[in-house]
UniProtKB/TrEMBL annotation:
The chain crosses the membrane at residues 25-46, 58-77, 89-110, 140-160, 193-215, 227-250, 262-281. Keywords: Membrane, Receptor, Transmembrane, Transmembrane helix. Its main location: membrane. One of its GO terms (molecular function) is G protein-coupled receptor activity. The lineage of its organism: Eukaryota, Metazoa, Chordata, Craniata, Vertebrata. Residues 38-279 form the G-protein coupled receptors family 1 profile domain. It comes from the Eukaryota. The keyword DNA-binding does not apply. Gene3D superfamilies: Rhodopsin 7-helix transmembrane proteins. It is found in: Membrane. This is Olfactory receptor 3A2-like. GO terms for cellular component: membrane. Pfam families: 7tm_1. The keyword Ligase does not apply.
């Protein structure tokens, strides 16, 4: 991008805009549909069974699934609009970026809470109910959503007041719209602050819980099921986090690569779609509840898990 006064190009064009937006729309809409089909059975059994609702990990899982589906739905609506118009306005682009980024915050925070919950449940089972009482469970969920909503509203209010114009652009990225703000330092500071929380706080906490559990349950990890679950959790975290970090820190260096941009969103959506598989369908308790929903299921038949 050269400038934001209408005299320079607001992006490049390695792939034709119509094809570029069509590819992104297909990837996001398919991911949204797949994730919705995977999430609905899990949300149904969680909301219909009081014995499951009282456990923090399943409450976190339900909120995680809702967050993921909302994020993919947001992307589908955004790319559908862009494909129909063949461009995106600066304001719409900025709102999409901020809302998507804060959905990522919710995702990472719930994943972190999930990791801490499992760590405490395994290491200190007798103190678990004391640490995570009913009131604290509700507080954790409400705090994550309220924090994300607050950050979103503050970022939108501050930045939209400093947006100098609303012109159509062919690509939607943070570093494209930043020069169009009267004070781009605010946006960069917000981005740095949130990124520091994600990196230094959440990811290190998840890694610490993972290493602590791996050390404490070394004998348990000899089973095939444990290794499959662990590998899936690591892959999901990598598929979700790597594109996010690349999009935050390295996208400026890849701005001439439409194919890289498409690859990033494909891997990112894959990381989202793995959430119900990793944290939901690997649960023996949820497997049993899901199996009971099948019309031909019998009490003598049990689901097979590897």
């Amino acid at each position: 991008m050269e400038n934001c006064n209408g005299t320079g190009s607001l992006w490049y064009e390695q792939i034709k805009t119509e094809l570029f937006l069509k590819i992104k729309l297909v990837i996001t809409s398919v991911s949204c549909l797949v994730n919705l089909l995977l999430s609905l059975p899990l949300l149904f059994v969680i909301t219909r069974n009081p014995s499951v609702q009282c456990k923090l990990r399943y409450v976190l899982l339900a909120n995680l699934l809702i967050c993921d589906n909302m994020q993919l739905l947001l992307g589908t609506v955004h790319f559908s609009t862009c494909f129909y118009l063949r461009h995106c306005y600066l304001i719409n682009c900025f709102m999409f970026i901020i809302m998507s980024f804060n959905f990522c915050i919710v995702e990472v925070f719930f994943t972190t809470a999930f990791s801490v919950d499992r760590c405490i449940a395994i290491k200190w089972p007798l103190q678990y109910e004391t640490i995570f009482s009913s009131g604290r469970k509700k507080t954790i969920v409400a705090a994550v959503w309220l924090l994300a909503i607050l950050l979103t509203l503050v970022a939108l209010f501050v930045a939209l007041n400093k947006l100098t114009m609303n012109v159509p652009i062919e690509r939607c990225h943070l570093f494209i719209i930043a020069p169009c703000l009267s004070d781009s330092g605010i946006l960069e500071g917000y981005n740095t602050f949130i990124s520091a929380i994600l990196l230094l706080g959440s990811y290190l906490c998840i890694l610490g819980c993972l290493l602590l559990l791996c050390w404490d349950i070394r004998l348990f990890l000899k089973t095939r099921r444990a290794w499959v679950t662990l590998v899936m959790q690591v892959l999901q975290l990598i598929f979700y986090s790597a594109p996010l970090l690349v999009d935050i820190f390295l996208i400026k260096n890849l701005k001439d690569k439409d194919d890289t941009d498409i690859t990033i969103i494909a891997i990112f959506n894959l990381g989202i779609s793995l959430v119900p598989l990793v944290y939901g369908y690997r649960s023996v308790e949820l497997q049993g509840l899901l199996w009971k929903l099948l019309p031909l299921s019998r009490n003598t038949i049990q689901p097979i898990s590897c």
